[in-house]
Design brief:
369 residues; globular; ten-stranded mixed sheet; seven-stranded mixed barrel
Length: 369
C-alpha cells in the first residue's frame, strides 16, 4: 500500500503525494525535465547526481525498465517526482516495473504531486534545494533538513560518479575502424566525469578504440597513452568545483585533439580562460533548439545542465559555434589553433533523431581519420 510522501522546498512550500519506489528521505536540487519518454535513461544519467527530478510529462512508468537502456551501472538521481505513476507496464522489452527498480536502488519517488505547479515554481523562482520523505511527516522538521543540506554551487559531484581505475570500453554496436587512418582505429582516451553508456557506444560505433580514465587523471598520464584524441564526458554539478579537470585539460590543449560534451564543454571553456555561471533553472529535456552558426541550421537537441559558459569571457582564438534559440546561451565552441571543440548538448541522445550525429564524424576528422 502506498505511503504518504512529502516534498518540501527550501522556501517552505510543501507538496503532498503518495510514495512509489523506495521509502526513506532524500535531499537535492529541484529540477524538471520536459522529455515525454526516457525516465530510465534520466535516472541513470550520472549528470543528475545531487538532484531530485520532476517529470513534466504526466504519465510515467507505463513501459517499465530494461537492462539495455541504462546509461550507467545504477541510478544517480536523488529522487523522482511524477503526476501519475503506472505500476503495470505494457512493453515487450520491460524487465520490471519502474518502482521495483527504484526500490532496488534506494530511489524515493512521490506521485500525485502537482508537477505543473512545481515546474512553474522552478521556472519562476529558479532552482532551489528540496527534500522528499516518507519518514518525516512534519513539514517544518523536513524543512530544517532541506535548509541544512549542501547546495550544488561549489560542490564537487564528479568524484562520486567517476570510475576509480582506467578500463577499456568494448561494448559498441558493431563499429569498424575509421577511414583515413591507414586501417587502424583511432585511439581515444575518455575522461569520465560521469560518462553515459550511449556516448561510449557512439564513439565505439565510429570506430574508436576507447580507454576510459578517472576524472582526476593527470595530463601526463593521458599523453603517455599516446592517444589520437581525448574526449571529455558529461557530468554533474558545478564546473568551477572541478578545477583540477580544467587544469589537466589546459595541459592537453594544443598537444592532442580534444572533443567535449556537456560538463566536458564547460571544462574546455574554463581551460581556455572562460568563466561559467549558474542558470536560473537550466536546460533539461529532449526538445531544445540549437542553431549552428556556420550555416544557420537548427538542431533539436537533448540537454541536461544547470550551468553555462559566459560568452563574454571567451576571447582569443576561441569561437562560439552554436547558440540556444530559447535564451541565446552558448551551446558550442571551437579553438582551431588548439584542435579543440565542444558542445553543451547531447548528440548521442538523438532526439532529432540524427540532427547532431555529425559531431562524432567531426571528431574523427580532427584526429586525422
Amino acid at each position: 500500500m502506498s505511503k504518504k510522501c512529502l516534498l518540501v522546498f527550501e522556501d517552505g512550500e510543501v507538496f503532498e503525494g503518495k510514495n512509489f519506489g523506495a521509502r526513506g528521505e532524500s535531499f537535492g536540487e529541484a529540477v524538471f525535465n520536459t522529455s515525454m519518454t526516457g525516465y530510465q535513461e534520466i535516472l541513470t544519467d550520472p549528470s543528475y547526481n545531487g538532484q531530485i527530478i520532476t517529470m513534466t510529462y504526466p504519465e510515467i512508468g507505463n513501459y517499465g525498465v530494461n537492462p539495455e537502456d541504462c546509461e550507467s551501472s545504477k541510478p544517480f538521481a536523488r529522487g523522482l517526482v511524477v503526476k501519475e505513476y503506472w505500476d503495470e507496464p505494457s512493453n515487450w522489452r520491460s524487465a520490471m516495473p519502474l518502482h521495483k527498480y527504484m526500490e532496488e536502488h534506494g530511489i524515493v519517488g512521490i506521485q500525485g504531486a502537482d508537477t505543473r505547479e512545481i515546474t512553474r515554481k522552478i521556472r519562476t523562482g529558479g532552482a532551489q534545494k528540496c527534500g522528499v520523505s516518507t519518514e518525516d511527516a512534519d513539514p517544518q522538521s523536513l524543512l530544517k533538513k532541506v535548509r541544512a543540506a549542501p547546495g550544488i554551487v561549489g560542490l564537487d559531484l564528479v568524484t562520486g560518479v567517476s570510475c576509480k581505475t582506467p578500463y577499456e570500453w568494448n561494448n559498441g554496436r558493431g563499429g569498424s575502424p575509421a577511414h583515413g587512418g591507414g586501417g587502424k582505429s583511432p585511439k581515444v582516451v575518455a575522461y569520465d566525469f560521469g560518462i553515459k553508456h550511449s556516448i561510449m557506444k557512439n564513439l565505439a560505433d565510429a570506430g574508436c578504440a576507447l580507454t576510459v580514465v578517472p576524472a582526476q587523471t593527470p595530463a601526463k598520464d593521458v599523453l603517455a597513452l599516446k592517444p589520437d584524441g581525448v574526449f571529455l564526458s558529461n557530468g554533474p554539478g558545478d564546473p568551477e568545483a572541478v578545477r583540477y579537470a580544467a587544469d589537466n585539460i589546459g595541459k592537453l590543449l594544443g598537444n592532442v585533439p580534444v572533443f567535449g560534451i556537456c560538463l566536458g564543454h564547460q571544462i574546455i571553456g574554463l581551460a581556455l580562460g572562460g568563466k561559467t555561471f549558474k542558470m536560473k533553472f537550466g536546460h533539461r529535456g529532449g526538445n531544445q533548439p540549437v542553431q549552428r552558426l556556420a550555416d544557420g541550421k537548427v538542431e533539436i537537441t537533448s540537454q541536461n545542465h544547470g550551468f553555462a559558459l559566459d560568452p563574454d569571457s571567451l576571447g582569443g582564438d576561441t569561437r562560439i559555434t552554436h547558440i540556444n534559440l530559447n535564451d541565446n546561451t552558448v551551446e558550442g565552441l571551437e579553438n582551431r589553433s588548439k584542435s579543440v571543440f565542444s558542445v553543451q548538448y547531447h548528440p548521442e541522445s538523438s532526439p532529432g533523431p540524427r540532427d547532431s550525429s555529425y559531431l562524432f564524424g567531426d571528431f574523427l576528422r580532427l584526429m586525422g581519420f
